[in-house]
Amino acid sequence: MVMPNPALETSLYPAVKAFLEAQGFTVKGEIRGCDVVAVRGDEPPLLVICELKLGLTLELLLQGIDRMRSADAVWLAVATTRKGRDRDIRAHRLCRMLGFGLLAVDAGRARVEVLTEPAPYKPRPNHNERRRLLKEHTTRRGDPTGGGSTRQPIMTAYRQQALDCAALLRDGPKRPRELRPVAPDAAAILLRNVYGWFERVDRGVYKLAEPGVMALLRWDDKNKY
Questions:
Q1: pLDDT in tens, 90-115
Q2: In the chain, N or C terminus with fewer CB closer than 10 Å?
Q3: Boundary residue ending a domain (94, 116, 138)
Q4: Helix boundaries (H) for 99-181
Q5: Per-residue confidence (pLDDT) for residue 222, from 0 to 100
Q6: Which of 17, 80, 76, 79 shows the shortest CA–CA distance to 50?
Q7: Could you list the residue range(s) of the whole structural domain that residue 66 is in?
Q8: pLDDT at position 2 over 50
């Protein structure tokens, strides 16, 4: 028996054909530019298209989108990997959102793994993340960091309050309640000391540490936040 060449997309075809035939489809390859066309039933027939690629690429997704106009269901089949894009849960979500089925094909073993089913998809709401987004958007003052910024600290609402605390502590040690009118979360910020800007000098009393002084110089508290 001639073994399929794993470097060719055609190596995926026998396993995908067998997978669809096991579901009662009549399967044929390369019909009007489609890698795989499978038909089941008579009136009306169920038409399924599968596109083959060695890896999950943008081109494969675009092909799938184009095929949706004429098919009842679309599968995307890629060569299986251990840590490749086919194993990325984000890619699975994207395929579900687009309505694609995703297959990981082990051509050597003629094995097909169903990663996502071709069905309409609505993502499960993440209410906790939604609340965090709304809170950060509401509490952050102004718009201090442009979208797309990389390789630099983000001016979050937490950092803004920490800088407020640092600015007030320049005049000398204080208690959290003295900072609370300007920084409502002062007690937690001083206690956690995430940035290392503060130093406790007595029970419930904090002063500005040298990293905090440098932070104020860096962000220029009057203009930058």
A1: 999 999 999 999 999 998 888 999 99
A2: N
A3: 116
A4: 127-139, 157-169, 176-179
A5: 54
A6: 76
A7: 9-116
A8: no
